[in-house]
């Protein structure tokens, strides 16, 4: 099989054929586009999500905390605690493992998230360090926002710039290779993108504002994220390529290596659907969070408009980060 997240058909097969127990106290179940499960506990509900870090060599601890807390925030819920599993190869040192844990500790302090426990092991089963985290959030009953809640006519909003995570990983892990494309100042700026990959702030603001759906933009980029939202919601969409917020640095890298920025991993950007997108953008910008409207939820197919041409969006493919790595291998 190819390296990367399973494609939609394979994932659907695994989910549909291995989910026997359905409990009444589970209000939202994980599935295509639904990264979190929500369990009812009377007047409170618990939100849970889990994800590993495998695509980055540097900043893996920072990424592990943020991508998992971002899932919880995509429900409009504050993350409370995190469980951390580290699988380290035989050649690892205690200092290397401690360095990852220091990153995790630093990021959890910023988000006021407690490290609840986990597991650390040196194993021959991996050839590089693998970090897998599970984050728990707590909210009032029925307060969590589902990915599947998008409604026809909703505005589609994106926060910050796309590809922050993907660009940062490429420049941090392959600095020598990109040095002939980007200036020293651009490399420094691209590395700094990693400091902006949390979407907890906009998730909590949008949850209080009242939105219909949220989804953090991870593997598969914006096209993967909007496809998953539409599929989960049984809707379509129409989005515009020229409205996508992409930095010049990202554009340079994608052009040089012929990779699609709309399919590049984009933690740091939140995809939101809401009835009054303009008002939400204004609220977010008052909190110093850049946001823009890039399209509408429809009741038809998923369409990307590029220079007046309508192109139907396919199910999520392998993330372009893995395509980039193969080109350099």
Structural class: alpha+beta
Number of helices: 11
Main beta sheet strand tally, sense and closure: 7 strands, mixed
Query: What is the total domain count?
Result: 2
- Strand residue percentage: 25-35%
H/E element order? HEEEHEHEEEHHHHEHEHEHEEEH
Count of extended strands:
13
Uncertain stretches of 5 or more adjacent residues = none
Enzyme class: transferase
Domain PurM-like C-terminal: 151-302
Domain PurM-like N-terminal: 33-137
GO molecular function, one term: thiamine-phosphate kinase activity
Report on this structure:
With 329 residues, the protein is α+β, with helices and mostly antiparallel strands. The chain folds into 2 domains: 8-140, 60s Ribosomal Protein L30, Chain: A; 147-328, Phosphoribosyl-aminoimidazole Synthetase, Chain A, domain 2. Helix content is 35%, strand content 26%. The protein contains 11 helices and 13 strands. It has helices at residues 8-16, 60-73, 94-111, 164-173, 175-178, 184-192, 200-209, 221-233, 248-257, 277-286, 320-328, and strands spanning 26-28, 37-41, 44-53, 79-88, 114-122, 130-140, 155-159, 213-216, 236-240, 270-274, 291-298, 302-306, 309-312. It has a 7-stranded mixed sheet with strand order 8-10-7-11-9-12-13, with helices on both faces. It has a 6-stranded mixed sheet with strand order 1-2-3-6-4-5, covered by helices on one side. A hairpin with a 2-residue loop joins β12 and β13 (309-312). α2 (60-73) runs parallel beside α7 (200-209). The protein is globular and about 50 Å long. The two termini are 17 Å apart.
